[in-house]
Amino acid sequence: xxxxxxxxxxxxxxxxxxxxxxxxxxxxxxxxxxxxxxxxxxxxxxxxxxxxxxxxxxxxxxxxxxxxxxxxxxxxxxxxxxxxxxxxxxxxxxxxxxxxxxxxxxxxxxxxxxxxxxxxxxxxxxxxxxxxxxxxxxxxxxxxxxxxxxxxxxxxxxxxxxxxxxxxxxxxxxxxxxxxxxxxxxxxxxxxxxxxxxxxxxxxxxxxxxxxxxxxxxxxxxxxxxxxxxxxxxxxxxxxxxxxxxxxxxxxxxxxxxxxxxxxxxxxxxxxxxxxxxxxxxxxxxxxxxxxxxxxxxxxxxxxxxxxxxxxxxxxxxxxxxxxxxxxxxxxxxxxxxxxxxxxxxxxxxx
Length: 351
Hints:
The protein is of the alpha/beta class. 40% of the residues lie in helices and 20% in strands.
């Protein structure tokens, strides 16, 4: 059987309490001391994944540190925990390991983990890009933003993920604005896009100016000094947040009832998958980040596919094709139903 593992971590002490109730009685400082010495452990087995070409099974492995500890503790200590989790997955028979968001960030996009654990790992970034843009196209239709005059803005366009998103969006949109802090890098990317697609994109270092005219915003930066205020965006705007950790400013934007903020795209996994752990997703669905390791396992492509901080256009195209081959499909949006989207649409001024 083709086997994979995915490394995850608890966000809060409450995540432990749901599995180990006694932990709820520990003071937080004691609990955090326990997690520092607690070894990685298996959370659940994953079964029932089957495409027209192959079957796969896997497991979730927990790196026991809380999200705040991953940010606060010495990087080497955190990295060592992640490496131990990957080595556990290897001992349990995994041929490929997927890294969660913080595990990827701490380990330089998985590079050091792959090297020190001597195990192929993937961050999920390539399929996350593919599905994010597929999801945006679908949501744009729901919000009636799929017309020729739709203005798309990429915030953080010169980053690795940002430039790939921009190059893909340029093939499908007439009006595209790229935003970043360095004009020289923007000019270089704009020239590349003009050569590849014939589209003359707009570039600017003025975030607020770009946002005021944006129908769709792709956020690929989590810089602390990037502030997006609710009043910066036009009524009916759709925003996808790639930033990890999440761009905190968008939490305020999400409170506007006429703006749609997408946090994550959900994917239908082929077969009758049983994840045996409640992540709050509908049955048979997972995030695109998780899905990448499953797709590669079904394909028997046991290699560090999305590794490091660079994601290429060809990687996104390849993982999208493999996903379609094995029957992965867009399922919906995390924390947003079609009914809620319709309510946002009704609140758009001028409708």
